[in-house]
Amino acid sequence: MSIESLKERLPDYAKDLKLNLSSLANDITLTPQQLAGTFVASALAARNEDVTRAIVAEYKSVLSPEALEAAKAAAAIMGMNNIYYRFVHMVEGDYAKMPARLRMNVIGRPGIEKLDFELWSLAVSAINGCGMCVESHERVVREGGLSAEQVQTAVRVAATVHGIAVTLDAAKALGEAGAN
């Protein structure tokens, strides 16, 4: 499976997603590793098996084994952190002053360039809807030298990948052609 096969499976009403996927797959604002890792981490966060398989198949040759593991780690750790910190942000109170007491070692030692890991964490946090994490990771990548355009590209990837996952899940539930 590949990005092309994903595009073929999208129903006609999702033509904009097809177009966005094509343009983002060829985007040059991010390094090849940044783009590939953003796609992989976003696919994992979008929680659709077909999307994940297609995107990993498409980008695993671009990523070193360490970078592929880091993209998976970004999705995993943000899957936990986004829930915890979204709670902290929503209820306010004393929780923000309390230590999280959750292991997050991979954030400090992701095995690849920290900036790339932070970018992937930002994309996953956008999908998971954690404002506190989005703000934190966006600040880190901007301070690390990424431009607003590069940040926007990563979030556009996350938005498009998530939209494709939602569309394929809906098409499958509705029994639409190409969804299986």
Architecture overview:
The mean pLDDT is 94. The protein contains nine helices and no strands. It has one domain: AhpD-like. The longest helix is centred in the middle third of the chain and has 27 residues, at 65-91. Helices cover 72% and strands 0% of the residues. The chain is globular, with a radius of gyration of 16 Å.
Using only CA atoms, what is the Rg? 16 Å
Q: List how many beta strands DSSP finds.
A: 0
Elements, N to C (H/E): HHHHHHHHH
Q: What kind of sheet is the major sheet? A: none
* Share of residues in strands: under 5%
N- and C-termini, Cα separation: 13 Å
Q: What's the pLDDT, averaged over the residues? A: 94
CATH class group: Mainly Alpha
Q: What would you say the CATH architecture is?
A: Up-down Bundle
Secondary-structure content class: mainly alpha
The name of the CATH superfamily reads: AhpD-like
Low-confidence segments, given as residue ranges, are none
Number of helices: 9
What percent of the residues sit in helical stretches (DSSP H or I)? Answer: over 70%
What characteristic shape results from the CA principal axes? globular
Number of domains: 1
User: What is the CATH third-level topology name?
Assistant: AhpD-like
Protein name: Alkyl hydroperoxide reductase AhpD
Keywords: Antioxidant, Disulfide bond, Oxidoreductase, Peroxidase, Redox-active center
Family: Belongs to the AhpD family.
Enzyme class: oxidoreductase
